[in-house]
Specification:
Shape: globular
Largest sheet: 9 strands, mixed
Structural class: mainly beta
Pfam family, one: PRiA4_ORF3
Order of helices and strands: EEEHEEEEEE
Helix content: under 10%
Number of helices: 1
Number of strands: 9
Organism: Micromonospora maritima
CATH topology: Structural Genomics Hypothetical 15.5 Kd Protein In mrcA-pckA Intergenic Region, Chain A
InterPro entries: MM3350-like_sf, Plasmid_pRiA4b_Orf3-like
Oligomer: single chain
Protein name: Plasmid pRiA4b Orf3-like domain-containing protein
CATH class: Alpha Beta
CATH architecture: Roll
Radius of gyration: 15 Å
Length: 168
C-alpha cells in the first residue's frame, strides 16, 4: 500500500547511535511529511529537529530490502554508486508501518530508526515539519565526548544496518 500523495505521513524518528555511543532512552521526534517530499527534505527537517547546525555531511537512508538513498552537498546525484539520489527520490516509496534507517555524518555515525505512520485526515505540509518530540538531543559536536562509553550493539532493531544486525 502506497501513501496518498494528498495526505500526510507521520514519521517517528528515534536516535539510536552517534559519536560512538548508543543513546538510551532514545531521543525521538515526529515529523509530518507528504509522499511528494524528497528524502533530502525529510533529512533537513530531522536534522533541524535534532538541533544540528553543521550540515555539510554525507547523508543516507536505508530502506526495507536494502535500497539506499544518498546525496552530497558537494555534487549532483547520489553520493555513492548504486544508490538513489535523495534530492530526487520521493517519500512515496514508503508504506505506512515500514521502518527504515537514516544516517547523518557517516564519520560520527548518527543513526536513526524511522517508522512511517499514516496521518489520517491531515493534509501534507508544504515542507516536512516537526510535530512532536521527546528526550534531549545530544550536541552535534559535544565537548568532552571522550567520556562517552563505546556503543553497545543496539537490540530490538530491524536488521537494516550492519551494526543493527545480531551476530549469527
Amino acid at each position: 500500500m502506497r501513501p496518498d500523495p494528498s495526505g500526510a505521513l507521520s514519521i517517528e524518528v528515534e536516535l539510536v547511535t552517534g559519536r560512538g555511543r548508543r543513546w538510551w532512552p532514545r531521543p525521538g521526534r515526529v515529523v509530518s511529511a507528504g509522499a511528494e517530499h524528497t528524502f533530502a527534505q525529510l533529512a533537513e527537517a530531522v536534522d533541524r529537529a535534532f538541533g544540528r547546525w553543521e550540515l555539510d555531511h554525507l547523508r543516507m537512508f536505508v530502506l526495507p530490502g536494502g535500497v539506499e538513498v544518498s546525496w552530497s552537498a558537494w555534487r549532483d546525484g547520489p553520493a555513492f554508486p548504486d544508490t538513489l539520489d535523495g534530492r530526487r527520490t520521493r517519500l512515496g516509496l514508503l508504506a505506512p508501518g515500514s521502518a527504515f534507517a537514516y544516517l547523518f555524518d557517516l564519520g560520527a555515525d548518527w543513526t536513526h530508526l524511522c517508522t512511517v505512520r499514516r496521518a489520517s485526515g491531515v493534509r501534507a505540509p508544504a515542507l516536512p515539519t516537526l510535530l512532536d518530540g521527546w528526550g534531549v538531543a545530544p550536541e552535534q559536536y559535544a565537548r568532552g565526548a571522550a567520556h562517552d562509553a563505546p556503543a553497545a550493539r543496539p537490540a530490538g532493531l530491524p536488521p537494516l544496518l550492519r551494526s543493527w544486525r545480531q551476530p549469527a
